[in-house]
Amino acid sequence: VQLQASGGGLVQAGGSLRLSCAASGHTVSRYAMGWFRQAPGKEREFVAAISSTGGSTNYADSVKGRFTISRDNAKNTVSLQMNNLKPEDTAVYYCYAKQESARYWGQGTQVTVSS
């Protein structure tokens, strides 16, 4: 499974961005998918996850109510809508796909939120 993340950029605080992650090489309809992020000097942290069917989602407390994860299994994609962005959301965002013990990572996309 290859994952390609896109949609990052520079935005002012309070603004919005939509990240997308496109999978190739294998259908991911049976994979849980999600996003982690890593800020400079910090460990990678969980952001959001979605079940294979899209029926269940989970969010880090820091993004609840602001971020929404979704997926389109017909297009082999997962998205992260980020609203009301804050400077502390600045990080490289990584998408992943997970099935049992296998986990695949995308290359990361930079999100920078200016105050």
Would you spell out the secondary-structure blueprint of this structure?
Blueprint: E1 2-6, E2 9-12, E3 17-24, E4 32-38, E5 45-50, E6 57-59, E7 67-72, E8 77-82, E9 91-99, E10 102-105, E11 109-114
Parallel strand pairs: 2-11
Antiparallel strand pairs: 1-3, 3-8, 4-5, 4-9, 5-6, 7-8, 9-10, 9-11
Summarize the model shown.
This protein has 115 residues and is mainly β.
If you had to describe this structure to a student in words, what would you say it looks like?
There is one protein chain. The protein has strands at residues 2-6, 9-12, 17-24, 32-38, 45-50, 57-59, 67-72, 77-82, 91-99, 102-105, 109-114. The protein has 115 residues and is mostly beta strands. The strands form two sheets. Strands 2, 4, 5, 6, 9, 10 and 11 form a seven-stranded mixed β-sheet that branches. A hairpin with a 6-residue loop joins strand 5 and strand 6.
| Low-pLDDT regions | none
Q: Which secondary-structure class do the elements indicate?
A: mainly beta
Mean pLDDT: 96
The proportion of strand residues reads over 45%
Based on CA atoms alone, the radius of gyration comes out at: 13 Å
Topology pattern, helix = H, strand = E: EEEEEEEEEEE
Biggest β-sheet strands, sense, barrel: 7 strands, mixed
Report the helical percentage.
Answer: under 10%
Distance between the amino and carboxyl termini: 37 Å
Number of E-state strands: 11
Apparent shape? globular
The tally of helices reads: 0
